[in-house]
Amino acid sequence: MKLLIHDLPDELFSTLSLPEDGMTVIAANGKFAPCQGCFACWLKTPGHCFIKDELQHIGALFGKSDEVIIISENWYGGYSAAVKRVLDRSISTSLPFFTYRGGSLHHRRRYKNEWRLKVILYGDFSDAEKETAHAIVEANRSNLGCRSASLFITNKPENVGGFLQ
Amino acid sequence: MNILILNGSPKKRGGASKYFSGVLKRMLIGCDSTEYSIRNTQDYRDVFKCMETSDAIVLSVPIYVDGIPSHVLRFLKEAEQFCREHACHSRLYVVSNSGFIEGRHNQPHLEQYRCWCERAGIVWGGGLGIGGGVMLNVLFYVLLAFIGLFLAQSLYNIVSGEAAINSAMMIGFARSIFVLLFLSAGMLVYLWKLSRAVKHGKSIKNLYTRVMLPSFLFLIVSDIFMLLSALLKGKLIFSLYKKDS
Fold first, then answer.
1. Residues of chain B neighbouring A106 (CB-CB closer than 8 A)
2. pTM for this structure?
């Protein structure tokens, strides 16, 4: 399964030719509730968020995917608030317990799927933001425990489709 | 010197971020500091008003999935526009805390605030990345518990007709306080360094520190802490591994 998280306007997203059927798409439109930092998804309702909205089971979607694609506007060398809201709510994909991964401590993974992360950032970039974006995606790879991660940067959101194939 | 302290935690009580900003505030002796939470958008107007007149802004914030939490991003986007339109001249300092023990884990997160400064026309003052933030916050409550127990024991001794404090009690208490202070030493020293930079209006290179515990011990203690926290919420260990459908 592939999971696509994006913050593109509907009219632009509808012009994209998605690589295959069966892709789960989450349109990060800023309407979802932000993470409360309560750790309920680890300790009280293990595996899912206590907030009953479309993102309640987002952790399991990460756990079922072999590829997660994130399309986001560049905000300070990282994701937009709308996309980051989806990622912040996804920590139930890991366990509250720690382990060593890549020489440093990270949370143990709840699911054992092998998956790739593809990040496409669009918008205006300074050199510092490009550098930071690479550092963020690499940190995501190590932290989320995915097999590989790649970052594509483009100034024009219309060019995003070219990176999907 | 006017200093605006912002708490970036989404928690009502402020969590570890509130603890670190509180410690820093106490180190800024002689400065006029104002503190706000940026949890709610209703508070933005008051915060922005304060930003105009502040010499320094200190943001204490947790790291979420390696970067800026979404509610803080929302605040920064509006603050960026405000700063550009009102020519704010403050210097931004950031205290970033992570649940992982390595202070360096905060580096990309801190770099994002440097990028924000470029866009907002604000001077980047530097950041402090703290590893094991939750544990350091918990240690503070342990310290309060030790003090409470010490006072309770003294009171009990008085009621029993004995000397309020004896040498064995003093040694035990001093040893506990020493251990707790040692574990928090990196955080205290680096917050002090940051407070000097804030007070003197200087920019510094990013600093990184952590709870003063070997990582393998941190792993064991944290896992036990998580287990006990889950038990308090009525969950046993095996239920924590549940896979969601």
1. 100
2. 0.95
